[in-house]
Specification:
The structure is a single chain. With 40 residues, the protein is α+β, with helices and mostly antiparallel strands. The protein is 25% helix and 32% strand. The protein has a two-stranded antiparallel sheet with strand order 1-2. It starts with 7 loop residues before the first helix and ends in a 6-residue tail after the last strand.
Amino acid sequence: MKLPVLSGREVIKVLKKVGFEENRQKGSHIILVIFNFQKS
């Protein structure tokens, strides 16, 4: 099964939907962190 080709912006958009938030950015590098992480 091949994975779809996604741009960096598309990946960030998906990650934000699942709970990641942008913490900071330096140039083209964006640091994402996950908030409200619940251990099971």
